[in-house]
Specification:
single chain, mainly beta, 5-stranded antiparallel beta sheet, globular
Length: about 190
């Protein structure tokens, strides 16, 4: 397989502050190695209520260790998002993460600098009983509907899946349109 070099993409940062959001994807990243060892990880992706210059919603995501231990960041996320701790059966049997998709919440977004770059980070997910919840825009293409990018013809583009589409029929891509500024750079 060839090694590809590309110019670094630029991203418009998601605005900081308390934002209405809706979960638009849950991506199982498998076992990922970090400074604390190899652990199963999951990336949660949200659309927020603020729009880019071209009238698209900002996208922000965060990676978590897929642990339901009460001290784990992912457990705290679910507890705050749902407004209650997980019950014993949920922690023992597990939680179907697909049920998070299309669930609204609030995200507290803060900007931070690292190695000369500024990132938009999720610092809190307070419980939200607001009845004016955000609805999905329909413009985000879930990662599970996409084929390996390496198999893509040069001119291919991503599209939204139709209701009768088979996930195997999706065009190649990684879910992120080529236009700069639509997606916030994920914090991994």
């Amino acid at each position: 397989m060839p090694t590809i070099a590309r110019a670094e993409k630029t991203y418009m940062l998601a605005p900081d502050g308390l934002r209405q959001a809706i979960c638009c994807d849950v991506v199982d990243r498998g076992d990922v190695a970090d400074q604390w060892g190899t652990k199963p990880k999951v990336r949660i992706v949200w659309e927020i209520d603020k729009l880019t210059k071209d009238n698209r919603r900002f996208i922000i995501s965060q990676m978590f260790s897929r642990s339901l231990h009460e001290k784990a960041a992912f457990y705290r996320l679910l507890k705050n998002w749902r407004g209650r701790p997980l019950i014993r059966e949920e922690t023992e049997q597990g939680v179907d993460l697909e049920t998070l998709i299309d669930v609204p919440c609030q995200l507290l977004v803060a900007h931070s600098e690292r190695e000369g770059k500024t990132y938009a980070n999720i610092t809190a997910i307070p419980h939200d009983d607001d009845k004016t919840a955000l609805w999905p825009s329909g413009r985000y293409v879930r990662a599970k509907y996409l084929v390996e990018k390496s198999a893509a013809p040069a001119q291919s583009t991503t599209r939204e899946p139709a209701e009768d589409d088979d996930p195997g029929d999706e065009p190649p891509g990684d879910g992120y349109p080529e236009e700069d500024g639509y997606y916030a750079e994920p914090v991994f």
